[in-house]
Amino acid sequence: MQYTIAHLKRGERGIITNVSSKSIPLKLLEMGCLPGNIVELVQVAPFQDPMYLNINGSHLAIRKETAIHIQIEKING
Amino acid sequence: MGKQINVALIGNPNTGKTSVFNALTGLNQKVGNYPGITVEKKEGICKLPRGVKAHIIDLPGTYSLNASSLDENVVIELLLNKKDKDFPDVAVVVSDVENLKRNLLLFTQIKDLEIPTILVINMADRMDYKGISLDIAYLEERLNTKIALVSTRKKEGIDVLKELITNYKEISVTPCLDTSEIDKDYFDNLRKAFPNQLLYKLWLVITQDVNFGKTERKEIEDVSSFKTKSKVDLKRLQQKETIKRYQFINDVLKVGQTIDLKSAKDLRIKLDRIITHKVWGYLIFGVILLTIFQAIYDWSSVPMDFIDSTFASLSEWTKNQLPAGAFTNLLAEGIIPGLGGIVIFIPQIAFLFLFISVLEESGYMSRVVFLMDRIMRRFGLSGKSVVPLISGTACAIPAIMATRNIESWKERLITILITPFTTCSARLPVYLIIIALVIPEGRFLGLGYQALTLMLLYLIGFGTAVISAYILNRILKIKSRTFFVVEMPNYKLPLFKNVVFTVVEKTKSFVFGAGKIILAISIILWFLASYGPNENFNNAENIVKTKLADKNITEDELQQKIASHKLEHSFIGITGRTIEPLIRPLGYDWKIGIAIVSSFAAREVFVGTLATIYSVGSDQEETIKNRMAGEINPILGGPLFNFASGISLLLFYAFAMQCMSTLAIVKRETNSWKWPVLQLAIMSSFAYIVALIAYQFLK
């Protein structure tokens, strides 16, 4: 199964593998959301949305509808 | 006086760019607008060593030169336009030491435009705390620039920066990257098509049109003829460019920056476990909101009362000191009360901006946006709509200006359209006097009926705002990208200087901006109420005297009758009687009608107008209240202000778009008359219908 950021649970981390270029705004890439970077789910609002992420030291919140387009590989531990 | 050096301050949001600006310019700054748009333009003068001066522009914060909002677009337009009078001799990129990697993206883009660029690494005082060490000499060499390590909090490094600006000519203009590597063929063709232009500049112009629609540029080469790639391809190239830039930056920082994670502390994550928590987060937000309301209504009542009485006595004094005549009357009855009507809002506006600027500076506002986004989205709003809705309880004008950072145009437009439903402070005087008149003093479950009514009115305002958002979301067919990204910056203790500057500057812009309109209206109103077209007005004194000749009344009462007769036959009185048939079904008479019409300038004018119309000498609430209580309905008999007409009035004011200044701001922010006109028509007719139903049902 292909994991995306939307699958992360609070405190879990992953490495971004692929960013679907059509659905992801350039701005998010500029803020550090690029393949190879480590992403950690810091906090979620009720209903898992929006999601508060730490991507390589960049702290930002995105909506779940965006998160499902960012593929990751889970890091255990 | 030598030539001033033009300096542009550029940087990501939350890097302390404005603190650097304040540190450089001190009080020598002014805030205006960029021509044609409502983006704020902050500029100032900085004194440099050896008698040189610099003109500094604080450009809106942006993450890159690929704009996605009006504010960001200003940055690009300036950097692309060499002929702009503000085109920088030197660009100063302000970066945050903790986010150096991300900040450098923007830096490399500006560098590639071959503009001399200084890099400021701000918040240098946090380096130890975060375990960061930098090899400045290496960074300067790799980035082809000069670096100033600055801490505005500790007031360090500003002199170094000033020195660098003075000697800007020594800074290399060699680009950091060769963007053409992302697609050699494409860029080769581009170079051939426009051989005299800087390649990276051409590329930015092309992508800018893709990102932001075609913008009009007089001074920049028109590249629209160069269409060898589709939009999708161009977007892919932009992504490629971003990735390439990050590769370069990673490469540089691998040697230039070491982070000792062991000694790094992260307070943000710890605090956010609580502040953005599913339960605690909302509780904390609730407590903060209550505190703000308390402050705005309670603390500001003291200075407001003071301003009120000062202007009343100033008006009185003017009348007594100046020779009687039309000019004195205009001054004492038109201009001074008009000015008072503006000045009286200063305490509330200042308090509101104080809180908002503290919440924003500290980084808390982003957390509120995070907490509220899901809930607001259900109604077609964004988490970012919360800020305007909170501000709207003080005044819709600053609230509507606060919608600018909402990315999606549809969400922003809906927020602008519904904000005037929130119960702003100008509705309070109207509510208070009518509630005192028509709602009994009894208690229900320990709460006074009157207090409950007021609370209910607040809830109605907020509820209507949210429901209208829901409806608008269904009706409006606007396609706009609805992505949502909000940065969660580090928590910071707000800098006193920044907070004070914001409060002073916003208050000033309120007083001079909205103030002009309010002042103009009050002068017009005074004129209309003080002059009449015919004999009935001009001979008021004789007519009244003849009519009352046989009655035994005091001189005071006579004067009141004359004033009242004059008003009835003044321009405004005639207007009132013309519109009377329209408002009679709501339970109002012509006097209330005039009060409604005149309070279109600003809602609180309602009480003042009634006070004048009922010819009350003093403006103590008790007196107006008694007068109003004594008014008889001319048709039905019985008190004019009864339960039915009172509720009808309350509801009318809850919904009607009774505020010129708000309409003017909506026009400015949406850049079209369509929205304010629709807003006026829909809100006011809805108010009319609801008030009509309420009165007919209750009477």
Describe the structure.
The complex is a heterodimer of chains A (77) and B (699). By secondary structure, chain A is mainly beta. Chain A has one domain: Ferrous iron transport protein A (FeoA) (SH3 type barrels). Chain A is 12% helix and 39% strand. Chain A is built from two helices and five strands. A five-stranded antiparallel sheet of chain A has the order 4-3-2-1-5. Chain A is globular, with a radius of gyration of 11 Å. In chain A, 49% of the residues are buried. The mean pLDDT of chain A is 88. Chain B is of the alpha/beta class and 699 residues long. Among the domains of chain B are: 1-265, 3-Layer(aba) Sandwich (Rossmann fold), CATH 3.40.50; 496-698, no CATH class. Chain B is built from 31 helices and twelve strands. A seven-stranded mixed sheet of chain B has the order 2-3-4-1-5-6-8, with helices on both faces. Chain B has a two-stranded antiparallel ribbon with strand order 7-9. In chain B, strand 5 (90-96), helix 3 and strand 6 (117-122) form a beta-alpha-beta unit. Classes of the chains: A mainly beta (77), B alpha/beta (699). The interface between A and B is large, with 30 and 42 residues. Strand 4 (58-62) of chain A pairs antiparallel with strand 12 (485-487) of chain B, so a sheet runs across the interface.
How do you describe this structure in short?
Chain A is mainly β.
Superfamily at the CATH H level of one domain in chain B?
A: P-loop containing nucleotide triphosphate hydrolases
What structural category arises from helix and sheet content of chain A?
Answer: mainly beta
- Main β-sheet, spatial strand arrangement of chain B: 2-3-4-1-5-6-8
Name the shape of chain A in a single word.
globular
